[in-house]
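Exercise 7b. Backbone tokens:
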């Protein structure tokens, strides 16, 4: 299907492409956040396991966005990807000195997942307005993965907090 850049569908398509580039950069940020956390998480094996799973999902989400952009004769933004990757690294390092690093990461991860969910919902809405059915289906897969991760984090805040308290009480490393 060919689109012109005029009219509501053309405007929606332009916003969609910009949003897809932004979403790709956001996934690059997520990838770096997860990698840095995996470098440090030691005392919470269930968190590490779920982060590894979500890292794989994040890479697939990046690939989906690349396919979507390529299918629309567009590409990712190297500048946005680089800047967001840097932000991901800095964000992960910000919690490293805290003696409750795992808790701060848990809270930040829940917020980040919900941000991604909102971004995907908006992108899906733009794609629907532009008539991009195939692209919307790919985005729905990513949205579902983000919702699953957010749900997992939300379901485990109390568990991670209890484990953190127990580790601290026993004198073992509890921060990460």
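Sequence design result:
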């Amino acid at each position: 299907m060919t689109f012109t850049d005029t009219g509501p569908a053309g405007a929606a398509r332009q916003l969609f492409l910009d949003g897809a580039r932004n979403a790709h950069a956001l996934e690059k940020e997520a990838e770096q956040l997860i990698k840095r956390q995996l470098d440090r998480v030691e005392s919470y094996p269930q968190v590490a396991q779920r982060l590894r799973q979500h890292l794989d999902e994040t890479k697939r989400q990046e690939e989906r966005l690349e396919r979507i952009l390529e299918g629309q004769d567009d590409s990712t933004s190297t500048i946005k990807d680089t800047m967001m990757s840097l932000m991901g690294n800095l964000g992960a390092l910000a919690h490293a000195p805290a003696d409750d690093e795992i808790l701060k990461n848990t809270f930040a991860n829940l917020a980040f997942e919900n941000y991604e969910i909102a971004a995907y919902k908006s992108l899906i809405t733009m794609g629907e307005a532009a008539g991009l059915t195939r692209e919307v289906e790919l985005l729905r897969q990513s949205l579902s993965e983000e919702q699953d991760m957010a749900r997992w984090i939300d379901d485990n805040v109390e568990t991670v907090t209890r484990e953190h308290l127990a580790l601290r009480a026993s004198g073992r490393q509890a921060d990460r």
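Instructor comment: The chain has a mean pLDDT of 90. Residues 7-170 form a domain with the Ferritin fold (CATH 1.20.1260.10).
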